[in-house]
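Project channel, design review

CF: Before we commit to the Oldenlandia corymbosa var. corymbosa constructs, I'd like one complete example in the thread so the newer folks can see what an input/output pair looks like. Taking OLC1v1035682C1.
RD: sounds good, go ahead.
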Amino acid sequence: MFQNRDEVETAIEDWRIHHNRQYNVTISGGKSWAAERTTRRMETLIRQSTCAWRMRASLQKNDLWQIVSWVDRHNCVGITRENDHHNLKSKLIAKLIRRVVETDPGFKVKSIRDAVNKAYNVDVKYKKAWHERRKAIEACYGN
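CF: and here is what came back for OLC1v1035682C1:
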């Protein structure tokens, strides 16, 4: 169970990055949130099929979010690691660096990139890391 939709999204993003899969959000509104596997064009050409993975979460009567459907069958292979993973969203990076930036606003962009690589085995672009550092500083200290 999750307290809110953001917790659902963060958990799924984190899980997918660690398992080297990408997805598209298909429903994001109201009381539902759903995602399905992204099928890259080259994979589609090779396999002539789409992946069966999909999930759905919804708001329950107790005001908690629950994953109500999880199809974990994959008829695809994990993508090769890219320089900047599609599902590595800003909020995941912010969550990773926020506490460090609170104690050290001079935290270097290279250190952010190293932390992301260590946590998720993904090379984040310098520009993305720089923007997330700036956002984290603004969130902690204002602009």
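RD: helpful, thanks. The chain has two domains: 5-71, 90-141.
CF: The beta strands are 23-29, 32-37, 54-59, 65-71.
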